[in-house]
Amino acid sequence: MDENFFSLEVITPDKTLFSDKVTQLIVPGQSGRFGILKNHAPFVSLIQTGELLITLQNLQQKSLQLNGGIFKVEHNTAIITTE
Known about the structure:
Elements (H helix, E strand, L loop, with lengths): L5 E6 L4 E14 L2 E5 L6 E14 L4 E14 L2 E6 L1
């Protein structure tokens, strides 16, 4: 059952750093960290340098270091563009 999952892509100008279905994100926003779950309202935000925390389909945790960028979520797809 993938009813609680949504798609995440983390991309740079050169490559895709991550692409999979996830259950939760904790994103380093400009005004502090924020969380994203399935069916989140459409949202766009600048992000700051920091740690992106990802909860995978199997509920394991993964983290990526981001160097700032742009975060966008709509229609159960989240995209992070970073350097």
